[in-house]
Amino acid sequence: MAMFIWQAKNKQGAAQSGEMEAPNREIAAAILRRKGLVDVKAKKKPIEINLFPEKVDDKDISVFFRQLSTMINAGLPLVQCFELAERGTEKKAMVKLLGDVRQSLEGGNPLGETMRKFPEAFDRLTCALVEAGEQGGILDTILLRLCTYKEKALSLKAKIKSAMVYPIAILVVSFIVTSILMIFVIPVFSEMFADLGGELPLPTQVAMGISDVFVNFWYVVVGAPIALVFIVRSIYKTPKGHYQLDKLMLALPVLGDVLRKASVARFCRTFSTLSAAGVPILDALDTVAETAGNVVIEEVILSSKDSISQGQTLTAPLEASKIFPIMVTQMISIGEQTGSLEEMLGKIADFYEEEVDTAVDNMQQLMEPIIMAFLGVVIGGLVISMYLPIFQMASLV
Questions:
Q1: How many CB atoms lie within 10 A of CB 229?
Q2: Cβ(389)–Cβ(204) under 8 Å?
Q3: Strand order in the sheet with 15-22
Q4: Within 13 Å of residue 51, how many CA atoms lie on the same side as its CB?
Q5: Could you say which of 186, 221, 379, 394 is the most buried, measured as most Cβ atoms within 10 Å of its Cβ?
């Protein structure tokens, strides 16, 4: 099968164009003629080599869903909505995605079912909500809720990234600076001290010994962090390693608290959104588990599903996991008893999203003096160790 670009006219004489797959150009033209098109011209689509291909991200999808909701609310047919969206976007990857979805819709497929064919752009949560909206006849309302959910999820993700990127960036820069000092600066001092003779202070000897390791085994020093990253990624790809690393992340002193609160907020927000759309609770828990972002929490959510399927409550396995705070499990229990679970989950999500904001700010305030002290000890220690022999010689003179 090859991809062909075609141009033709319909029975009314209006020009149409598009792309299609076919074994060869003749078959492609014959298929188009059977659809009632005339003046058919088809040519093989040239192969494009793109080293840095564009990707459709959650922000693009969120903006499109808001536009789609507005157009559906205005009474436009779904296929026409996608045609207008194609013309209105400049991102090639988004144009291709919308075109592929539109072609599937023109074939009579439902929107939710069509979206499941593109898992790289539409996650399971999105597909489940769109299907619920189609079944209930409230697709425009569901799309707005989905936009709100994605915007809050993107905001939460950005906060977590900012909490992790800052200390990692500082540590990487400090490692680079230390390596430069060890490989290029300290050997100059070593040669100078060797010419002077005499016994050097202990800190200077230690610094020069470390410098010798950096100079003689620089490939190990540079390669070790890179190898460590690849090893961790390899371990993360295994089910057992993935579980243990996710468990370790939740157990970290400061960062673990931020990640736990973010996971609770994501769980409650996703569950609340699915419940509001009328998705059955067992199906909702499957989707919530998949979008949890942490294998440990995913396991807890699936155990909650098993608990409900056996006629028990949702809160028992959540409380037994020790991951979800008591306040969260109690509020969920109240929501179950009063029939206001959706509203209660939304309130918990709002509260913990604010808690994540506060936790990230506190962590950054805590990390700044720790990082400054670390840099002061490392860089300052190297400088002092190199100048100690000079101070000693000055005192002797």
A1: 10
A2: yes
A3: 15-22, 2-9, 38-44
A4: 0
A5: 186
Does residue 280 sit in helix, strand or coil?
Answer: coil
* Locus of tokens 């001092």: 189
Rounded average pLDDT over 132-149: 85
Distances (CA, A) of 250 to 168, 303, 322: 18, 19, 11
The position carrying tokens 């909702």 is 284
- DSSP conformation class of 41: E
What does pTM read for this prediction? Answer: 0.67
The tens digit of pLDDT for each residue in 301-321 reads 888 888 888 877 788 888 888
- Is the per-residue pLDDT at 287 higher than 70? yes
- Are 289 and 275 a contacting pair, CB within 8 Å? no
- Phi first, then psi, for residue 292 (nearest 5°) are -65, -35
Length of the chain as a residue count: 397
**Helix crossing, 341-396 with 202-216: angle to 10°?**
110
The token pair at 392 is 């000693």
- In angstroms, rounded to a whole number, what is the distance separating the alpha carbons of residues 209 and 205? 6
Q: What is residue 258's three-state secondary structure? A: helix
| Cβ–Cβ under 8 Å, residues 53 and 43 | no
E strand segments, 23-172: 38-44
